[in-house]
């Protein structure tokens, strides 16, 4: 959080119901001058920006989370209420409030205006989305509305700059009140207060000529298809397939380019620099670390491109509606579907995508089970072991045994994820989970909002997750490089390093599940990313091959030296496999605490160990070794 | 408005217009402030209400137009709401 500014520029808070176009207005007001962070101690996103008015006044603008009421029920609303009341630690109470309202939904939005009036903060009402209202034939007399409400009302159009100028003019003209030690006081509203407010809203709407209900709107007709019991799920399946395809396949080319680019840079550096420890650090530590951060970017950009469009258009809550029963049966929100689906490509964009789940408990459960979705980094490991140990033969119905095994591994991940979610739900408070999800009218996604949103995701990933990943990669390099092998050493260098010793120690722990010391050592650098374990195995078996050749060279080697139970045990291990530091770093950032990554690593380790142990024992008994 | 005609929201035919008669609190198993939150979302006596869509399985959740907004509700949430159809129920 920033420190209090030296010359206090006035702080304006944007407040409004969810889906009122508040963030679009914020984007126009502040452009790219935004800072995205979290409120201290919670995972609620904090967006602040600034603008300079024509008269040269610098204003800070805080985009408060959407709220239906000032009596909070969600963490989002808690933050909004606390900030407005000046009760939030680390936040100054705003000097001025802009209450953003959706002109097409004043019946709902004006109650919040009345609540804010009770708070007694200086305020202006922004009448947003007036263009859409006008197209619907709703013409609102803004001046009259202002008279009835007792606060100034300015017409704005959330996606155009025209109306915003009027709003800035009002902000400029309003003498910002001196910051007094005033504390807004809030009395929780009773049910009869709410009913009284609604009667007042109806009266005002009648006076300004906006007391009318929509007939069957365009959104309704679209919902007839999108929410249709049969067609709806079909449309959803097509959209989800497209998203999955994009994250999984389209990202492959740029990811390969990044890998190639980093490798080329490494080769160039390798040729240009004299051999030294520093060179090794630069190439195998820093450069490889930067590469492992960058390689996630294509997936993150593609996934969030789709998510932002689905969210901005209003489809995302509809998808949650359609999936509510299925996901709800294991205690997940319907919104968990997209994060979980993207986790099949990589858990990192998946975990970042859980931001669209508002309920904090649902979000946490989704984060916790995301790594159980078989990510693409596990494929090279699966491919290696399956090629080496599972015979190529057709089963009944023309199915390939190898393919069936691969499918079973994916299925094992999904089933265990559902089981974990179910257990987490049972552990939580019993009773019904509320849904009460607003289905806003459909909108065309706005390019400016899309661009800003996408850039913010990239920035968050690069600056906050990337730095941890990079640091961990460098540490891992050090573990694998020190101490150097003694003169006259015969084994591979990694065997003499700290990682090698760790591996030897791990071999004792992993013996009961059938792992030899070579596997145990390979698991340590495999912490960087799961597929690195394949390369590390190559190193441990002292292969000189690189890249794709490792797999083909390794296959006969491990076929000879591993037993079938060992191979199956390693497959089972990788279904759960907690060893992905980048995922744990992302969880740390997204949950704002070390608690959940530690719990996650522990429970995944336990499941992996138990799963592998059972697999190893059963396979040993069956093969009679 | 004939109070005797009021029915649970779930029994309202999709597409049929109605007005909210009452919003009760939750039963013992639901979240304590359920009725209150429904009121905050606009489920208030006298407001126009209409079922926009129903889910495939057990016809849940339901999408409900209330005033000018639309909300998805689970059945236990909808169970708190009683409505009075605008047109008499067809036999």
Total of DSSP H or I helical runs spanning 4+ residues of chain B: 2
Number of strands of chain B: 6
**What is the beta-strand fraction of chain A?**
5-15%
Q: In angstroms, what is the radius of gyration of chain A?
A: 28 Å
Report the helical percentage of chain B: 10-25%
Q: Evaluate the radius of gyration of chain B.
A: 12 Å
Explain what the structure shows.
- The complex is a heterodimer of chains A (625) and B (91).
- With 625 residues, chain A is an alpha/beta fold.
- Chain A has three domains: 11-214, Rossmann fold (3-Layer(aba) Sandwich), CATH 3.40.50; 231-375 and 407-446, no CATH class; 465-623, no CATH class.
- Chain A has helices at residues 22-30, 75-85, 106-119, 130-135, 142-149, 161-173, 191-207, 218-226, 231-250, 252-272, 277-294, 297-313, 315-328, 337-342, 347-352, 360-369, 379-389, 401-427, 447-481, 498-510, 517-523, 532-540, 549-561, 564-576, 581-591, 595-623; strands at residues 11-16, 34-38, 45-52, 58-63, 96-102, 123-128, 153-155, 437-438.
- In chain A, strand 5 (96-102), helix 3 (106-119) and strand 6 form a beta-alpha-beta unit.
- The longest helix of chain A has 35 residues, at 447-481.
- Chain B has 91 residues and is mainly beta.
- Chain B has a single domain, classed as Ferrous iron transport protein A (FeoA) (SH3 type barrels), CATH 2.30.30.
- Chain B contains two helices and six strands.
- Chain B has helices at 34-41, 75-78, and strands at residues 7-8, 17-23, 48-54, 62-66, 69-73, 81-85.
- The mean pLDDT of chain B is 82.
- The chains are: A alpha/beta (625), B mainly beta (91).
């Amino acid at each position: 959080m920033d420190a209090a500014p030296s010359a206090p520029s006035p702080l304006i808070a944007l407040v409004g119901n969810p889906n009122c176009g508040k963030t679009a207005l914020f984007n126009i007001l502040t452009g790219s001058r935004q800072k995205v962070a979290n409120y201290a101690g919670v995972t609620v996103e904090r967006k602040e920006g600034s603008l300079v008015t024509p008269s040269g006044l610098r204003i800070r603008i805080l985009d408060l989370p959407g709220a239906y009421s000032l009596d909070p029920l969600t963490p989002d609303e808690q933050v909004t209420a606390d900030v407005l009341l000046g009760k939030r630690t680390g936040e100054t109470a705003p000097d001025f409030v802009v209450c953003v309202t959706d002109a097409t939904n004043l019946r709902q939005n004006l109650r919040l205006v009345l609540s804010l009036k009770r708070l007694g903060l200086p305020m202006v009402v922004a009448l947003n989305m007036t263009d859409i209202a006008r197209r619907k034939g709703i013409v609102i007399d803004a001046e009259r509305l202002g008279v009835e409400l007792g606060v100034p009302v300015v017409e704005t159009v959330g996606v155009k700059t025209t109306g915003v100028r009027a709003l800035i003019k009002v902000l400029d003209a309003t003498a910002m009140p001196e910051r007094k030690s005033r504390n807004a006081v809030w009395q929780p509203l009773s049910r009869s207060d709410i009913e009284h407010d609604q009667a007042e809203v109806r009266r005002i709407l009648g006076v300004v000529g906006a007391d009318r209900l929509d007939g069957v709107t365009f959104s309704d007709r679209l919902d007839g298809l999108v929410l249709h019991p049969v067609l709806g799920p079909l449309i959803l399946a097509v959209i989800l397939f497209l998203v999955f395809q994009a994250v999984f396949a389209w990202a492959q080319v740029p990811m390969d380019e990044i890998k190639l680019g980093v490798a080329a840079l490494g080769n160039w550096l390798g040729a240009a620099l004299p051999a030294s420890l520093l060179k090794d650090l630069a190439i195998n530590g820093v450069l490889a670390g930067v590469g492992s951060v960058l390689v996630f970017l294509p997936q993150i950009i593609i996934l969030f491109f789709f998510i932002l469009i689905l969210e901005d258009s209003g489809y995302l809550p509809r998808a949650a509606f359609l999936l509510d029963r299925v996901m709800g049966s294991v205690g997940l929100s319907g919104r968990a579907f997209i994060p979980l689906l993207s986790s099949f490509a990589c858990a990192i964009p998946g975990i970042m995508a859980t931001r669209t789940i508002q309920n904090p408990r649902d979000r946490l459960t989704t984060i916790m089970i995301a790594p159980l979705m078989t990510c693409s980094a596990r494929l090279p490991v699966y491919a290696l072991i399956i090629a080496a140990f599972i015979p190529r033969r057709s089963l009944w119905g023309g199915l390939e045994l190898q393919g069936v095994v691969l499918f079973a591994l994916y299925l094992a991940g999904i089933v265990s994820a559902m089981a974990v979610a179910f257990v987490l739900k049972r552990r939580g408070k019993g009773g019904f989970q509320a849904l009460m999800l607003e289905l806003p009218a459909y909108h065309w996604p706005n390019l400016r909002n899309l661009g800003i949103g996408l850039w913010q995701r990239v920035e968050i990933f690069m600056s906050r997750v990337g730095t941890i990943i990079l640091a961990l990669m460098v540490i891992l390099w050090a573990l694998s490089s020190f101490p150097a092998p003694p003169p006259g050493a015969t084994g591979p260098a990694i065997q003499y390093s700290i990682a090698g010793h760790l591996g030897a120690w791990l071999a004792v722990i992993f013996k009961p599940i059938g792992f030899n010391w070579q596997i145990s050592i390979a698991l340590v650098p495999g912490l960087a990313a799961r597929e690195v374990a394949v390369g590390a195995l190559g190193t441990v078996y002292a292969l000189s091959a690189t890249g794709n050749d490792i797999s083909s060279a390794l296959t006969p080697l491990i076929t000879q030296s591993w037993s079938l139970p060992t191979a199956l045990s390693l497959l089972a291990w990788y279904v759960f496999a907690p060893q992905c530091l980048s995922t744990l770093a992302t969880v740390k950032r997204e949950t704002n605490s070390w608690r959940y990554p530690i719990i996650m690593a522990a429970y995944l380790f336990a499941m992996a160990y138990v799963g592998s142990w059972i697999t190893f024992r059963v396979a040993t008994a069956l093969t009679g070794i | 408005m004939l109070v005797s005609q009021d029915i649970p929201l779930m029994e309202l035919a999709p597409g049929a217009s109605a007005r909210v008669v009452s919003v009760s609190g939750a039963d013992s198993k639901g979240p304590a402030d359920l009725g209150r939150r429904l009121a905050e979302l606009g489920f208030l006596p006298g407001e126009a209400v209409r079922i926009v869509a129903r889910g495939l399985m057990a016809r849940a959740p339901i999408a409900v137009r209330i005033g000018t907004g639309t909300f998805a509700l689970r059945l236990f949430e909808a169970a708190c709401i009683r409505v009075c159809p605008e047109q008499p129920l067809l036999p």
